[in-house]
Amino acid sequence: MMNRINSLFRRNLPAKLLALAVAVILWVVVMNEQNPAIEGSYAVPIAVVNAPEGYKITKSDDSVKIKVRGPRSLFVATSAEDFRAYVDLDGVPAGKNDCKVQTALPQGFELVEVQPEAVTFDLDQVIQKRMRADVTVTGSSAAGTTVAKVSQDASFVTLEGPQSAIDTVVRVVGYVGLAGNSNDFDLTVPLTALNADGREVQGVRVVPQTTVVSVQLARGLSKKIVSIHPVLADDLQPGYQLGDVRTDPIKIEIAGDSKTIESLSAVDTETIDLAKFTTNQKLTVKLALPTGVTVTNPDVIVNIEITKKK
User: Fold this and answer.
1) Three-state DSSP state, 89
2) What is the layout of strands, in order, in the sheet containing 102-104?
3) Which residue pairs from 151-156 have beta carbons closer than 8 angstroms and sit at least 24 positions apart in sequence?
4) Are strands 156-162 and 118-138 parallel, antiparallel or unpaired?
5) pTM of the model
6) How far apart are CA 84 and CA 66, in angstroms?
7) In sequence order, what are the residues at sequence separation of 6 or more whose Cβ sits closer than 8 angstroms to the Cβ of residue 84?
8) Distance between start and end Cα atoms, the chain
9) How distant is the alpha carbon of residue 154 from its chain centre?
10) Is the preceding peptide bond at 298 cis, omega within 30 degrees of 0?
């Protein structure tokens, strides 16, 4: 029985093989004519895998354009949601990195190209920083009164946010308006993180966000205009020299008992540490007021010129 089957199979074997080959060729031709391979493009959002914790992550592009090739019949039942583009951030260091975009395609498709092939990711570590919170008094109190004391319940705050943003914060401040008040008052004041230009730094959270400020007013105090004297520590780095030092304002109005202020011609600032500076600085510092002497706003700006020795 097996011999008869083998005999039938081998009989006219070359002709049978030729017929099979022709059938395969005809099938391929028919399929290519009826279902040819074509190309198509899809806009696919970029997903992120293995994102490190404790970082703010931004990317230069939110999506990529994927060009693929496949049988026409596959495109009929396929949409952009069936394709995947992603970047693996495992082991990527902090800072800006050009990361290759990887893809996952439905079965039957061939990748032609991805535009762009790489996307820039910025990994900005989220940190905390403790900083002093200042209160600035604006406006004027009622006639015949002056500010005797300003106190606040939160003298220090914690900044939370990306390191690149927190590094630009030079001060945290809340503003209190006197608005013609004639009596002592308390006020809840929002606290804002500011950069060197006096603008609010976005993306930084101040904790606590507010502080309660108590303003005490006094009557019968004498007033006087005096100069402001910036006090600088003698710790400038070797190889650098100190240039012009100016305060803004140059003079300020102080208040106090007449015997206390009559001998004052200037008030000092807090001591300014120069050890960490090698370039020009614009700093906000507090006045070091003698006992019994008050000012409406104890904060002044000191402009310091620092140059490298020739």
Assistant:
1) coil
2) 102-104, 84-88, 37-49, 63-71, 110-115
3) 151/213, 151/214, 152/189, 152/211, 152/212, 152/213, 152/214, 153/211, 153/212, 154/191, 154/208, 154/210, 154/211, 154/212, 156/130, 156/131, 156/132
4) antiparallel
5) 0.68
6) 9
7) 44, 47, 103, 104, 105
8) 109
9) 25
10) no
Q: Which residue has the tokens 């993180």?
A: 193
Q: Are 67 and 39 in contact (CB under 8 A)?
A: yes
Return the HEC string of 142-193: CCCEEEEEEEECCCEEEEEEEHHHHCCCCEEEEEEECCCCCCCEEEEEECEE
Residue in the structure block whose two tokens are 């013609």:
180
Distance from the Cα of residue 256 to its chain's centroid: 44
CA distance 116 to 22: 44
* Mean pLDDT lowest among 8-22, 63-77, 188-202: 8-22
pLDDT in tens, 235-288: 888 999 999 999 999 999 898 888 888 889 999 999 999 988 999 998 888 899
Residue 292 has what pLDDT?
A: 86
Distances (CA, A) of 73 to 18, 35, 36, 109: 30, 6, 8, 11
Q: How does strand 156-162 pair with strand 205-207? A: antiparallel
CB 251 within 8 A of CB 300: no
Task: Report pLDDT digits (tens) over 280-294.
Answer: 998 888 899 998 888
Chain centre distance of CA 137: 29
Mean pLDDT across the stretch 102-128?
Answer: 94
Residue tagged 């902090």 (tokens):
94
Is 121 in contact with 89 (CB distance < 8 Å)?
Answer: yes
| Spacing of C-alpha 251 from chain mean position | 37
The pLDDT of residue 16 is 58
Q: Is the pLDDT of residue 167 over 80?
A: yes
